[in-house]
Amino acid sequence: MRAFVLLALAFQVLHGTGFAQDPCHAYITVSDPMRSTGYTVGQTDPQLCDNRLYRGWYRFNSPAGNEMPNSCVDQYRCGTTFPVWARGTHPQTVGSVVAMTLCANAASMNPDGETCCHWQGITYVKKCDNDVEPFYIYFLDRLPGCYMAYCAGDRYQCPDGQTSTADDGYSPCSSEFPVFDAVTLNGPTVSQDQPGHFKFECEVTYNPDFDLQRDQTIFFFTWVVDSDYVGGEEQLLPNPETTDGWDPSSWISSDKLVDHFGKKIRCDVRSKWTHKTVQSPVVSSVPYFIGIKLELDGQELRTTEGVTVAENDATAKTVTVVSTVPITCINPNGCHLMIELETEETDVVLEIPGLTAAQIAQMGPTMRKCEIALRESHWDPATKRASTEYNLLAVRDMVNDGDHDFLLKFKEFSYVHANDNLWDGYQIPPLRIRTVDKPTGWCSSTGDPHYKAMDRKAYYHRYDVGTYIMYKSTLRFFEVQARLWPCNFGRPDRAVTCNCGVAVRENNDVIIIDLCQGVYGRASPDLTIKSPHPLAHGTRITRSGGSTSSTYTIYFPSGSKLTVNTYTTGMDITIHVPSDDFEKCEGLCGNFDLDPDNDFQMPDGTFLPSDDNLPNALFEAWKVNPGGSFWETVPDQLPFAEHQYCTCMGDALYGGEDANKIECGSDLRAAKTDYGIQSGVIDITETQNNRKRRKRDTNYHDEDDEDTDYDFSFPNFVPIIPNWPTPSGITEQLAEAFCKQAIQNSSMATFCADQADVDIFSTVVQCIEDIKLSDDKQWATAALSSMEQECTTSVLANISMYETNENSSTPVPPKALVEKLCLNQCSFRGTCVNGECVCDEGSIGKDCGVSANTGPTVWDLKRGGLCDIRQRPCEKVSVRGIGLIESDNLTCRASEAKFENGAWRKTGVSYQTSATFESFAEIACHLPPANIQPGRYQPAENGIPSYGLFISISNEGVYFSDELLLIIYDSVCQECNEDGHCSLKDNSCLIRGYCFADDDPNPTDWCQQCLSNSSISDWSRREDNRAPFITSSPNITKLHQESLIVMLTAQDPEGRPITFSSMQQLPHGVTLIPGGVLHWSAHGPTSLAIDVTVTDECGAQGLQNLFLSTMPCPCYNGGHCVPIHGIPTGQGHYDCHCENGFTGSQCETDIDECQSSPCQNNGICIDQANSFICNCPFGFTGDDCGLVDACAPNPCFPGAACQNQLGGYVCGDCPPGYDGDGSTCEELPFSCNEKYRQISDNGGSPSDGVYKINIDWQTTPVYCDMSRDGGGWTLIVTSMSMGVWDKVNILSYNEDSPTLHGDYSILGQADRIKATGVSAGFFEYRLEAEAPSRWGGVWQAPIDYSFTHKINDQTNVSLVTKFDDWDYGSRSIGHRMPWIVENPDFPAVLTTAESPGIEWFGTVVGSDLGLSIFQNMAAPWIQSKAGTPSYIWYWLRELRSARKE
Fold first, then answer.
1. pLDDT digit string, tens, across residues 340-360
2. Residue 1443, class by beta-carbon neighbours within 10 Å (0-12 exposed, 13-18 middle, 19+ buried)?
C-alpha cells in the first residue's frame, strides 16, 4: 500500500497533476530562521509544528539558510522537538529532480526505528535558478504530529556582544573583541642569550577562524608582581591569511624582577580588533611565586605553619628548601646560593645531607657556617624547582623544661655566588618550630647494693653474687649489665654483696669498668673498651674523683649516660636514659612508664608484687648465664649509621665575631647537662681510644688492662644478713647518729633537702644499712656520694631551678649546686668554696684526702710485678695503692737491682720518671727502654737475662712510698715468680748472658746451636746436619746450534744456603757458577757427562752425574724451535713456531686458505702462500668480492677517482681546474673578474671574500673584491711587515691563505691571471694603503707589462682613479708599475721607486735584511701622509670581452 501511495505521488509531481506551471515559478516561501540546525529550542520557548502544512512545493529562504540538512539532526534543534531532515543527495544540475528520504529524530514515536530516522517520509527536490542565484524547492506534506518540523539552514543569530561577519546578524559571529581561551605563564627557563638570567613566558591560547576574521588582532600584555607593574608590551597578531595556528606570547627577563623576590608574578592580557576601540576584559594567568619556599613532607609550609619535633622522635622531620626560579650563573664554571640560618634556641639540631665528620674537620674555623647550598645543578626544568633539604630533630636535653616555641631564621642575602643583583636583599621568612618535651628516666644501684628503679624510688636490695641485666632498651641497642661480688669476703658472719663491675653497650660500643679481679678493699678500677674498635664519634668518657674514689661518666650519642663511682670495695651505678626508651625497657631497673607499681617485671612480661622485699625470682630471671655476659662475649658488630648533627645558634642575622658558627658532631642531639659542672673532671676518651688502637694494631704493647674473660664464680657463697650490734660493737643507734652527723656536715645536704626535694632520710637509711652489713663507718661516704648523685640528677632535670648565665641568655645549673659540688665533701678535711676544696693544713689533693707529709701507701704491681720482655716492651708498670692524688708532680722512682746471693740487691743506679694518674688507686710509671733486648746477641758483650727495678711513687716528688720489686726477664731461659726468684729454665741455654732455647742456632754461626744436654752455657756443634741434594733432572738436552742456560736446582733439608761446583775439568763450552747456573754453548751434535757437587755452609755435600746431549730441531717448512714456556730449559721440550701458511705440531701441514670459501658472489679463489686471491665477477669488488662494485657504471665526474665503500661508493677530488664533491664538478673561473661576471649574469650580487679560481688548471684560493671600483679585483699582494719578505718569497707567500690582514703574495701567478682575458690592449691594477680606497689609486697598463718585471722601465701607466691627495715623486708613489728589486743590499723588494737605493718611498713590499735598523718597520709609502702604513694592498683586474679557453 505504501509503495502505491509513493508511486501516485511521484506521478502527480512529475506529470504536473495539480500543477499548472513549472514549480520553480510557483512555490511557497518559508522564512523561519528557527528552522536552522544552529537554533536550539528551550524548555519554555515556543516550538514549530508542521502538522498543518499544505501539500506543495516550498522554498526555504531565511538568513539562517535555505537548504535542508542531509545528516542526522539532534533533538530540540530547528525550533522543534523532533527535527526532520532529508537523507540523500541534492540535485546538481538546474532543472533536475531527485527523491530524498525524510527522517525524524523521534525515538519516542518509534523506539524500534532506524537510528536518527525513527519516522520516514519522502520528498522531491528540484534545483531552480532565477537568474540571480540557484536554489532548491521541496515537495512537502504535513507531518504526522507535534512537535515535528522541517529543518533548513545551519546558521544562528549572533548573540549580544557579537556581530555577524556577513553583516546580516547571523553566524559566523565575531566578538566585539577577540576572545581567547586561556593565559598560561610558562617558565621560568634559563636564558641562553643572557648569561646569569632567567625568563618567564606568557602565552595566549588563541584559535581564531581566519576565514571569517576580517581584521587583525592586538594583544596587550602586562607583567605584574603582586600589585607592581614590571613590564609589558603590545603585540599585533600577523595577517590571518599568512598565519597558521600562531599563539601570541610575551617574555620578561629576570633583570626586571630585582627587589621583587618573595612575591608572586602574573601576566594580565587584554585584546582588541585593530579597527575597534573596545578591549576585552583582563584575563590573568595563575600567579607564580618567585623566591624560596619551605616544604614539609612534600607540602608547602605557610608562614603561619610550623614544624613540631619531639625529643623522642626516631626519625627526623625533613624540610625541603625549594627555589622556584633557577640559580643562574654569570660565571661559566657554575655557582650556588648559600642559605645561612640560625636557631633562637639550642633545643633543635639539624642534619645537613652529605655533610660528614671528615668534611667538618677539613673546614677552617672561618668557613664553619651554618648554611645549606642551592646549586645551579639542582634546577630541574621539568618540575621548575631547585631543591635541597635538611633534617630537624629535637635535642634530648634530659631536662624537664616543657615545650618550646621558637624560630629558625634565614639570613638576608647580601652576597651570593650567583647573579648577585637578583637575590640581593631577599630574605626567606622564618620557620616556626615547636619542640615537645618528653620525660627522661634514671635508676641506680648503690652500696651493698640498694636499688632505685626508673619509677619506684624506694630502695630495694639484693644480697647474692652474679652478673645481672640492670637495664635493657627494647627499642635500641642499649644495655647495662652489673656484677655483684661478696662484700667482706672471708667473714662468714657478713656474707653480703655489692657491685664490683659494670658493662654497658650502645650500638657497637662496649665498655667495661671492673673491680672484680681485685682484692676486696684493695681493688682499683680497670676501664676496658671491649668492642674491637675505638669508640664511635660522640661517645665520651670522663673521670673525676679524689683520694678514695674515682667517678667515671660515659656519655653516649643517644643521650644515655652511665655514672660509676668506684671505691676499693665496690661501685655505685647510676643510669640515665632519654625519652626514646619510655615504655620500651626492661631489667632490674623496671619499666619506664611513670607507674611505680609495675617495675618488678619478669622477662616474660608478667609482674611480681611491688614491695620493699624484692622477690629473689626477679633477680634470678634477669641473671646472665655464665659465658653470656659482655665480659665474655662481644655482640656482633652491626652497620650503624653515624649521624652528624649540627647546631646553628649564633647571631647570624646581625653579625658579630661568632656569627653563625656551625658546630657539628654525632653527639650534639644529646645535651650533656652535667658535663663540666664539677671541677676536676677530665675527658679520657682519646686516651682510652689510643690504648685501644695500640692493642688492636700490635700484640707487643704495655697496656695493663686485665683480661675481662676471667672466672667469676663463688661456689661457696651463701648470703647472710647480719644483725645489730656489729662485731666491733656498733649499735643501730650509734650508726644512726653517725650517719646523721655525717650528712649534716655535708655542704650538699641542706641544699638537696630544701632546694632539690631529695629524701635525705633515705640516705640515712642507706648509710645505717651499709654500716650494719660492713661493720665499717667508711661506708657513710658511699651513702653520701649516692645522695649527691641523686641530688645533682634532680636539679639538672628541673629547668625551673636553672639560672641565667652572666655572659649570655643561656640557662645554666644553679650556682648554689655548683658551688657545693666538692669531691667527697673535701674528706671533712677542708672547706668547699665555689665547688673546689680548700684543704686544711697538712692535707692535699682535690678532696683533701691525703696527708701532705707522707708518701702514698702502695699495695702491689699489676701482673704480679713480673714483666716478660718477650711479651711486652716493659716500659710501663702500673702501681696500685691508696693516698694518690692527680698532680703534675706525680713521680716514679726506679732503682736497678740484680740477683746476688739469693736476694735482689740495688746496683746504685736509680732514676726518676714521669707517671700517669689512672684512678684513685692506680698510677702508671713510665720506664726507660729495658736493658734486655730479645733476639739480640753480641758475642763481645755480656747480656742480661733478668734484672730488677725497685719502684716507689710520690705525689709531689718529695715523699715517696715504700718500694715494690719489678722483675724484667727473658722467658726464653728464665722462670721468675712473684716471690722474686728467677731460675734457669729447662731445655734452654744461657750463653754470655743471652737466652736461647734448645735447638736455637748461633745468630753468627748456624752450624752451632743451643743443646742443653751438651752445654747450658756455650754453643755446641750442630749434631744433625743432612747433606743437600740436586733436584733438577740429570739429563740435559739442547739443540745443535743452541746456546743453553740451565738453572740447576737443589734442596737443603734444613733450608740453608748451598753452592754448586765440579771436581773435574769441565769440557769446552761448559761453565758452572756457584749459584747453580750451567751454561753450555758448544755447537753441533755431541754427547758428554759431568759431575756436579752441592755443598751447604757446614760442609755437608751431595754429588750428582749430569748427562748432556744435543738434538736437531724437529720443525718442518722453515719452522723455528722455541722453548716451551713454563717447562725448565734443557729438557728437550720445544714448540714449533711455523712460518705463515703452515700449521701442525711440527709445521708439517700447508694451510689451504681457499678451504673456507672466502670469495663471495661466485668469486674464484686462488690459494697463495699464507694468503689467497679472489677473481671477482663483473659488478663486484673487494678482497673477498663482498662489495658491490658501485664504481662500475663510472658514477663520478670524469677525472675524479671512484672508491667502493660498504653500501655505496665515494668520489674523490674533482680534477684540476674544477670544484665540487667529485660526483658533480664545475669548472672554476680563471679570475675574480670572471667570477664576478658569472654571478652577475645569473642575477646574483657578488660579495667580497675568498673564492677558488683556476690558474693553469690548478685550484687556487684567492681573495676577491667584488664591491669597489667595478668589482672583479684579484688580490695579489698584502704587505704588513718587513720581517718575513725576501727576493724569493715575493712571488709566493702564504698562497693558500689569502688575507687582507697578513703578509700574502701570489705575485708569481699574476701574469697567468692577466693572460686569461681577451686583450683589450691594457689591464688594470690597484694600489691602496692603510685602508681600502685610501692613498693610492687605479691604473691602466699595457697588456704586455709584467707583474714580475725586474727593471724600473714600465712607466707607460695611466692613473684612472686617485685615492686621496698625493703626487708622484721620489718620496711618494713612483710613476711606474711596481717592479722587483734584485739587488740584495736594497731593502725594497717590490717598489714603484725609480732608485730604491737612494729613495725607496712608494715601496709595496720591503725586507729588513736582518738589520736592526729596519726591524719593526713597514715599507715606506708616501712621506708625511702615509709614511709607513699598516697595510698595503696590490690588486689585479684583467679586461676581457669573452672567455679565453
1. 888 877 788 888 777 666 666
2. middle
